[in-house]
UniProtKB/TrEMBL annotation:
GO terms for cellular component: protein-DNA complex. This is LysR family transcriptional regulator. Belongs to the LysR transcriptional regulatory family. It comes from Mycobacteroides chelonae (Mycobacterium chelonae). PANTHER family: HCA OPERON TRANSCRIPTIONAL ACTIVATOR HCAR, TRANSCRIPTIONAL DUAL REGULATOR HCAR-RELATED. GO terms for molecular function: DNA binding; DNA-binding transcription factor activity. It comes from the Bacteria. Gene3D superfamilies: Periplasmic binding protein-like II, Winged helix-like DNA-binding domain superfamily/Winged helix DNA-binding domain. Keywords: Activator, DNA-binding, Transcription, Transcription regulation. InterPro entries: LysR_HTH_N, LysR_subst-bd, WH-like_DNA-bd_sf, WH_DNA-bd_sf.
Length: 334
């Protein structure tokens, strides 16, 4: 099939304007409300949806009731439509900004990953090209999806391994877990401990179990080591993980900071023998291409720092992490 014929076929399949109208209709309580939001008549919106259904050859809404209900095919289209439309917007903005190469590439990171750790990931890229413009800011995990879809984020970094249905992901690297305690803590006399030595000490976490992948991961490591952890959810959110123990001096906290003194010497980070490894996962918008993102991924492949015998997040053991993390480009993402 020629490029012209293929392009004509794609246009007939999905018209971006009708696709946007479909998304608005799917999210609105009524068709009338959707039409009002789009500043068109209800009849025009109904005609656009019917044309989209004819283009795709499936019913997108069940019209058995007065309110529109998505069919299974409609749910399938809705799930993929938002990232696809966001990708179109990103492409349009990138084209408009082509003459402005200094437009910042925005990276959001969850509180479980410090800004210093983010800089270690981007450092090879900014050293190789000091003109590249990158903005790093902290975001809460629950806002990552919206930030990527609305264009306020170009890339997000978090602790996680699950794959959201409407976003692209890749595990960039793994980091060894360590323990943070205040200087007066009983464990502060040690430079290295076995993970079982924290069994008698309560642990500060940032979200309750079953509400956070990272908390569940930490709990699973404790259980694999033979003890049930005593947990306290930190009421202070968004601060560096090692600061959690300052207000709770009899507690400890899992961190990924370098071993030694931190926070003006008030906190000590202790190494764990055969440490469990935790992931840094990148999340971005599918159907999008970014030169900066590709550079970051390529440079991050060799940035993993692990020790022999470290335990992976799935409980397995690996002597080292090969630097062959798959990077999904626009053509790879489904």
């Amino acid at each position: 099939m020629s490029a012209t014929a293929e392009g004509s076929s794609l246009v007939n399949l999905l018209d971006s304007r009708r696709l946007f109208q479909f998304v608005v209709a799917a999210e609105a309580p009524t068709l009338a409300a959707a039409a009002a939001e789009l500043f068109i008549t209800q009849q025009a919106l109904s005609s656009a949806i019917r044309q989209l259904e004819r283009d795709l050859g499936v019913a997108l809404f069940s019209r058995a009731q007065r309110s529109l209900q998505l069919t299974d095919a409609g749910h399938e289209l809705y799930t993929g439509a938002k990232p696809l439309l966001a990708g179109i917007r990103v492409l349009a903005n990138a084209t408009r900004n082509h003459s402005n190469p200094q437009r910042a590439f925005v990276i959001g990171h969850s509180p479980a990953i410090s800004s210093e750790e983010v800089y270690r990931i981007i450092e090879p890229t900014v050293i190789a090209d000091p003109t590249v413009s990158i903005t790093v800011r902290q975001v809460f995990p629950s806002t990552i999806g919206d930030g990527l879809l609305d264009g306020s984020l170009d890339l997000a970094l978090r602790r996680g391994v699950d794959m959201p249905a409407d976003l692209a992901t890749d595990t960039l690297l793994y980091q060894p877990l360590r323990i943070a305690v205040v200087r007066s803590h009983a464990l502060a006399a040690h430079d290295r401990i076995d993970i079982t030595e924290i069994a008698e000490h309560p642990i500060v976490v940032w979200a309750p179990p079953r509400h956070s992948y990272y908390t569940d991961l930490l709990v699973s490591h404790c259980r694999r080591s033979g003890f049930e952890p005593q947990l306290l959810v930190n009421p202070v959110q968004g601060t560096p993980p090692h600061t959690a123990v300052l207000a709770h001096p009899d507690h400890c906290a899992f961190v990924t900071d370098d071993p030694g003194a931190v926070y003006h010497g008030k906190v000590k980070v202790i190494e764990i023998a055969n440490p469990p490894l935790v992931p840094v996962q990148a999340v971005w918008l599918p159907h999008s291409v970014s030169t900066v993102r590709n550079r970051l991924f390529e440079n991050a492949r060799g940035a993993t720092v692990v020790s022999a015998g470290s335990q992976l997040e799935d409980g397995g053991i690996r002597a080292s992490i090969p630097s062959t993390s798959h990077v999904a480009h626009a053509s790879d993402v489904q």
